[in-house]
Amino acid sequence: MWVTRSLAVCSLLVSAVLGSAPTLASSSASPSASPSASSSTQNAQEKRYAILDNDWGAVSFIPILLALKGDMEILGLASNTANTWQRQSALHALANLELSNLTCIPVYPGSTWPLLHTPHRFHTWEALHGVLPWQGAFAPEAQDGNDPTSGDPNRIVREAFIEGFPRGSIDSSTSAASFMVDMVRKYPGQVSIYSAGALTNVALAVRLDENFARNARELVVMGGYVDVNLLQVRGDVELANENSDINLMIDPESAKIALNAPFPEVVIAGNVANQVPSTQDFLDEVHEVRNPLTNLFHDRYGTEFPFWDETAAAIMVDRGVVLNSTTAYIDVDIAYGSPKYGNIHVYQKALMPPGLRNVTYVHRVDGERVKGLMKDAMQDPPSC
């Protein structure tokens, strides 16, 4: 957040599911962009587009604001199943846009189901390898007013919309994956794909069009923790939660497809997403300017978790926030019987197995700069 499947089986699964800144590090093994993407390099420097794919929640507007304040044009939002089911997530996206006066941005429905995983399959794995501290959409069904988990994937819990229930509608004219493919064809070399939830939609887009990844600008991912097992042991359950990779583990097969696709660059914000904590002092500082966004952030964001999605978005918008990164070759464990199912493994080039690609793995960011971008985006938000 694995049983190996052939390309033919992956294609069948896809059919069933479907209804700026310079590069930090490079390698001769990096996949090369197609001629159309290469020819648009100059245009890419002039105009940057983004598609934001996330398991949207009640206070999820900050990555949207960061992208817009960073002079990126957001082509659309996509919803996926990770923390909650896709449909609830899509409605949260709409509600966040309405709160932000950004209803000019469309929301496209992503895949409700991962390629293989189901709640039953997920819990069977847990019975063998231990319970995850956060189970996301596959947590046992509850009637507690929070975002829905398990049970009916199309169930909507209105009480969970503390940001306000949306009045608008999801754009169901196309799927999130098809929308991604269409936009990358329209703007080759210029579209950043931001994924802060499951990678299901990105994997489907990769399988829909063999040139999708090559013609995108980059893939920026929140997730991909490395060497965190001891952190899951030595602290409390919440520390284990912070170091649990639910974004990849809820759909490991999609993560493997997406992270090995030939994007010009894949940027991983894994462990580094835990670096910048939410503190009461910062919540109060942002709230010195009062508006609907700062009010919701101050009252509802809380101090329990770090700025996961916001850190990844800041990296996409402004590579100047990155203080340390490295190039690594990456793979995702898709062996269902493995205790590391859905986790990544990184290699140096000399030791990697065949068929992997290199990624930019971010180790450290300028936390004050990240918070400064967030503060400015909320206190002086963009609008349509």
TrEMBL record:
Keyword match Hydrolase: yes
Family: Belongs to the IUNH family.
Upper lineage: Eukaryota, Fungi, Dikarya, Ascomycota, Pezizomycotina
One CC-aspect GO term: cytosol
GO MF term list: purine nucleosidase activity
Inosine/uridine-preferring nucleoside hydrolase domain segment(s): 51-370
InterPro entries referenced in this protein's UniProt entry, alphabetically: Inosine/uridine_hydrolase_dom, IUNH, Ribo_hydro-like
Organism the protein comes from: Aspergillus candidus
This protein's name: Inosine-uridine preferring nucleoside hydrolase
